[in-house]
């Protein structure tokens, strides 16, 4: 099931070996240790940073390769452009952000500590000019006073117009992170679902124990790990488990997990969100470890994981100590130093100083010494060597200084020396070093457990927040739960995994938990060493200890205010290394305890997620699904221009060679219909089969007019209201049998009307015997319109079918047999005002129908027409459509008030009678035509009485729909105008401030063409 | 979030549409029922516009438009988003047939 394998050296040819030897000898890996770590020395990789060629090995991150190459300076800081180095070895990295790749794949703010090295990797530093070493913007440090907390609010308040022209561009140039690519993303992103019983988040010792316990018990387990390798802190710390070397244990545990068919291991997959009902979101970096994704491979995949239980074993993050100069390149977390040495065989410094306030930090001293480098001093404010490290001190004759680091000296290339102050007597001494390892203790990763507004609780014994509960179905275990020793992690993870599996009903045995030392931690909290010089809390947003105390002095004491005022924790790392230190300093400044001060609200995403991954395949033409009409491909062959209407693509017009613009094509189509015959695909109209003994009663209740009285074989125009009395939708509904109606809706409302009808049937009138079937996609429907429509159609139907006015009168509806035997539904209805039919054939015959209409219509000059011509003809006939059915109009506003039955209840009847909805001064549908026949009318233009000044008080409505009428040879329109029907013939002012137009128009009947309706009955 | 449709099982919430409070009942309005127009209008006004906005468990209408097209009545906690129960509307799916003993 799992494709996971720990990296095994690959067999190579002699020639490859020779190439590699050349590469290795030419390598500049001055800080590479002789041991193997978890890198593959037989796979050297070339890469460049700021244009300089270097080498590393498979298994390196960009950060570890830079460490191995002796590179300390990797970035310039956000506000002050201070030189910055690598601080951590994990996803919490605040400083070592680089711009990865080039061109369309350029991506800023990539953490060098999580970027896997690959052959040909190109990375550049960011936020510096002209170069990383000589950054002219570092002059910002001299202006530091203006960059203090709240500077956005204080400095650039006035004048407002300076914001756009001066302040913002200046700040953007001076303060910022990297630049993203300005080209479309060439990569693909995928989305996928996964389901399991137990989701384990984090593959360290606790997570491995949890997955193993749940897997052995028989649960379906998914283990997600953001790193490329399983192991978590074991990779950096080593240790002994069940009497064997931690790496041996890791290998055997991984083997067992891989062998379990019910366990799925997903590495390179970071869980970033916790959602309702046990749904989790994770990002899998599928191809970020190669120069570009393989053909047909995605770059990243967004997983939604549904889990009955989850065990969060996301570990803990080591926190920095805030002291002057703590941001210099070469100041690194103590655990990161261990990881670079043990996992990557890369030495962050040759003369390492260690500053720790807890026993765990001391392990770095041992690992550095064992690696053959030198610990120049251990500085510990606790003034006593921890018992378990006394032998270490003796063996290596370590220099131990009681006190604190009070300053760091150095240049762009990093630390040269530190100043150690004995905090009792104030004596200082200088220690020469090229790397200062710092440990201020550990912060359990409580974020995921707090995403549903959970509040973490403070544990005094470990001076850290731990989860104060978790969303339903989630448990936390291991370091994420405040269990900071290896032995406790193994035990806690195992029991959480076993419990989760049991809750999911797994019956198997989880086995025994592995065992390791449960060594003490012995932390004495130390948050802030006061002194001259900037002491950084948030490395990424350049927030210092004095910014926090300034915020306090200015009254921003709440942590949420502190965050907004100083921007602490608001950078891409979301304050993973800085939030707790910031609020500890605020607590100190306000004289409150840390739990009294509290934490800010935790929100997803836990780690940055590319927008591309959230969009997945839904971009460009695939932004949403398309619906194609049955004649779409036929229309495309005719050269139709298509328009998006909802999800549908509809033929808008069919240009012919030599036509100069759309208006010419559309006018030709209209005249072809009015003078001959044309056809249009109207399959997009919503279609619903309504059947049952009570079908007629049901329709009586949803339409304002009666349908139970409609004769079989007849069609009728129907209008629906919302329950509040406003018009909802319209369409033609036909009675095909006593208990069978065929209802049509507008294209736009098809889905919503179906939902509404189902609500009426299932909720409001469940006792009616009626069933609804959506048939929109089942029928290809064509309107065939024009004086020659009947002649054309007669050639298509079986000779036995009588289509004369007597045999098939206006508003007739029935099944007909086509030549060849296909049964169609034929309706004698007209939207265009001409004699017209609508014919429905099973959708699979749609394209054939279009072809046959062309063949049969050839003698009559048949012309396919699109939605524009359809729209022109409906305006000429005064038929209302979407712009008039706009969610504010009543039936009477549309001129259809007489349709409202007084003999029955129907949806909306009572509320439609409210005073304001029947007021005489309502805006109603009328026709509008400019007095100057050459004038183009525009929809949206306002209607004002002649001689009045346009404004809210004089406004009387607006133009809703316009077209150029080729029949009348002028622009005409429909409008909603106050008391419009009483004002036929009145000249009004048309005011269009958007287009700076002002002209006069005549209010007229909305029916411009054939007002008696002679033609459609023809 | 997933919703347990009584006909389709647990499905992703994107398949469903939310309508709102399931408590208001449409007034049973007979055209010649003898009610005064004011009383009928008041009853409809309440039905159309008045809704309780509870922090806690609410009965709500949900529509499984991306599935079986059934209208459902769900009891949902508006604070935790937890679904307490999901049942079919009186005329949903096969409910009518089942009631008729088919
Ligand atoms: Zn369903």
TrEMBL record, chain B:
The keyword Nucleus does not apply. It comes from the Bacteria. Signal peptide: none annotated. One of its GO terms (molecular function) is sarcosine oxidase activity. It is an enzyme of class 1 (oxidoreductase). Its EC number is 1.5.3.1. The keyword Metal-binding does not apply. Pfam families: SoxD. Keywords: Oxidoreductase. This is Sarcosine oxidase subunit delta. It comes from Mesorhizobium shonense.
């Amino acid at each position: 099931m799992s494709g996971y394998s720990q990296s095994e050296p690959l067999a190579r040819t002699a020639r490859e070996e020779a190439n590699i030897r050349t590469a290795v000898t030419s390598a500049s890996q001055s800080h590479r240790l002789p041991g193997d770590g978890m890198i593959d020395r037989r796979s050297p990789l070339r890469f460049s940073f700021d244009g300089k060629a270097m080498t590393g090995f498979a298994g390196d991150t960009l950060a570890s390769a830079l460490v191995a190459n002796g590179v300390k300076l990797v970035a310039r800081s956000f506000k002050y452009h201070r030189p910055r180095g690598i601080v951590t070895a994990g996803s919490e990295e605040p400083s070592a952000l680089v711009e990865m790749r080039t061109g369309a794949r350029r991506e800023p703010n990539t953490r060098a500590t999580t970027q896997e090295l690959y052959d040909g990797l190109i990375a550049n530093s960011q936020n510096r000019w002209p170069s990383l070493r000589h950054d002219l913007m570092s002059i910002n440090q001299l202006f530091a006073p203006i960059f203090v907390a709240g500077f956005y609010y204080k400095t650039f308040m006035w004048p407002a117009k300076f914001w756009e022209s001066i302040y913002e561009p200046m700040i953007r140039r001076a303060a910022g992170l990297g630049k993203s690519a300005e080209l479309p993303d060439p990569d693909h992103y995928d989305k996928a679902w996964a389901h399991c019983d137990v989701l384990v988040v984090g593959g360290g010792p606790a997570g491995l124990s949890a997955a193993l316990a749940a897997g052995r018990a028989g649960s379906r387990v998914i283990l997600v790990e953001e790193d490329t390798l399983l192991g978590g802190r074991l990779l950096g710390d080593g240790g002994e488990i069940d009497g064997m070397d931690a790496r041996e244990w890791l290998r055997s545990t991984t083997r067992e997990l891989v062998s379990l068919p019910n366990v799925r291991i997903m590495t390179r997959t970071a869980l970033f969100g916790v959602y309702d009902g046990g749904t989790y979101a994770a990002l899998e970096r599928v191809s970020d470890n190669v120069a570009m994704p393989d053909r047909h491979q995605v770059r990243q995949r967004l997983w939604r994981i549904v889990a009955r239980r989850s065990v969060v074993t996301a570990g803990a993050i080591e926190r920095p100590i805030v002291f002057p100069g703590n941001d210099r390149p070469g100041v690194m977390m103590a655990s990161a130093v261990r990881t670079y040495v043990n996992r990557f065989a890369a030495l962050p410094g040759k003369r390492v100083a260690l500053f720790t306030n807890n026993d765990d930090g001391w392990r770095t001293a041992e690992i550095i010494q064992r690696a053959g480098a030198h610990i120049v001093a251990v500085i510990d404010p606790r003034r006593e060597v921890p018992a378990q490290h006394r032998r270490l001190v003796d063996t290596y004759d370590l220099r131990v200084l009681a006190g604190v680091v009070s300053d760091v000296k150095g240049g762009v290339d990093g630390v040269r020396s530190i100043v150690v102050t004995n905090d009792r007597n104030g004596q200082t001494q200088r220690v020469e070093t090229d790397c200062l390892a710092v440990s201020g203790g550990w912060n359990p990763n409580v974020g995921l457990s707090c995403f549903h507004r959970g509040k973490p609780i403070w544990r005094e014994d470990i001076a850290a927040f731990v989860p104060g509960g978790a969303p339903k179905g989630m448990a936390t275990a291991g370091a994420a739960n405040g269990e900071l020793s290896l032995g406790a992690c193994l035990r806690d993870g195992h029991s959480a995994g076993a419990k989760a599996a049991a809750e999911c009903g797994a019956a198997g045995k989880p086995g025994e938990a592995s065992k390791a030392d449960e060594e003490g931690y012995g932390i004495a909290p130390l948050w802030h060493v006061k002194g001259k010089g900037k002491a950084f809390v948030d490395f990424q947003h350049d927030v210092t200890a004095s910014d926090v105390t300034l915020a306090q002095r200015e009254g921003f004491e709440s942590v949420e205010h502190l965050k907004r005022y100083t921007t602490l924790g608001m950078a891409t790392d979301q304050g993973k290394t800085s939030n707790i230190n910031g609020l500890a300093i605020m607590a100190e400044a306000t004289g409150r305890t840390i739990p009294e001060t509290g934490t800010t609200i935790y929100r997803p995403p836990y780690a940055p997620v590319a927008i591309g991954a959230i969009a997945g395949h839904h971009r460009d033409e695939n932004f949403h699904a398309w619906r194609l009409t049955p004649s779409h491909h036929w229309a495309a062959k005719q050269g139709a221009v298509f328009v998006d209407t909802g999800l549908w693509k509809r033929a808008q017009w069919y240009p012919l060679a030599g036509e100069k613009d759309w208006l010419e094509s559309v006018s030709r189509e209209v005249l072809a219909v009015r003078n001959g015959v044309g056809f249009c695909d109207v399959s997009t109209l919503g279609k619903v089969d309504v059947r049952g003994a009570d079908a007629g009663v049901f329709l009586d209740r949803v339409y304002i007019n009666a349908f139970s009285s409609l004769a079989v074989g007849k069609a009728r125009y129907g209008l629906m209201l919302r329950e509040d009395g406003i018009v909802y939708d319209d369409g033609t509904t036909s009675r095909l049998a006593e208990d069978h109606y065929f209802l049509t809706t507008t294209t736009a409302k098809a889905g919503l009307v179906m939902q509404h009808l189902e609500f009426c049937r299932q909720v409001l009138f469940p006792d009616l015997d009626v069933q609804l079937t959506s048939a929109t996609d089942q029928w290809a429907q064509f309107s065939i319109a024009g004086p020659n429509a009947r002649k054309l159609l007669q050639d298509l139907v079986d000779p036995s079918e009588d289509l004369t006015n007597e045999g098939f009168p206006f508003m007739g509806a029935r099944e007909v047999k086509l030549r060849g035997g296909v049964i169609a539904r034929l309706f004698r209805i007209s939207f265009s005002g001409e004699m017209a039919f609508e014919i429905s054939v099973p959708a699979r015959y749609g394209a054939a129908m279009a072809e046959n209409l062309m063949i049969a219509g050839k003698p009559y000059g048949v012309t396919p027409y699109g939605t524009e011509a359809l729209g022109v003809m409906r305006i000429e006939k005064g038929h209302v459509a979407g712009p008039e059915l706009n969610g504010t109009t009543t039936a009477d506003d549309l001129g259809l008030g007489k349709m409202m039955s007084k003999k029955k209840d129907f949806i909306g009847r009572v509320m439609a009678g409210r005073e304001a909805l029947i007021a005489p001064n309502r805006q109603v549908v009328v026709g509008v035509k400019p007095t100057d026949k050459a004038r183009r009318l525009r929809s949206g233009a306002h209607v004002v009485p002649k001689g009045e000044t346009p404004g809210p008080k004089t406004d009387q409505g607006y133009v809703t729909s316009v077209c150029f009428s080729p029949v009348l040879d002028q622009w005409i329109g429909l409008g909603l105008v106050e008391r419009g029907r009483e004002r036929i013939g009145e000249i009004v002012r048309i005011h269009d401030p958007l287009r700076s137009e002002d002209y006069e128009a005549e209010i007229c009947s909305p029916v411009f063409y054939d007002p008696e309706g002679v033609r459609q009955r023809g | 979030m997933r919703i347990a449709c009584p006909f389709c099982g647990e499905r992703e919430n994107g398949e469903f549409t939310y309508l709102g409070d399931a408590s208001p009942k449409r007034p049973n309005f007979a055209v010649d029922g003898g009610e005064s127009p004011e009383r009928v209008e008041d009853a409809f006004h309440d039905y159309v516009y008045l809704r309780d906005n509870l922090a806690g468990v609410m009965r709500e209408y949900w529509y499984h438009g991306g599935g079986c097209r059934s209208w459902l009545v769900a009891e949902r906690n508006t604070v935790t988003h937890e679904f307490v129960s999901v049942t079919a509307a009186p005329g949903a799916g096969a409910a009518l047939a089942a009631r008729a003993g088919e």
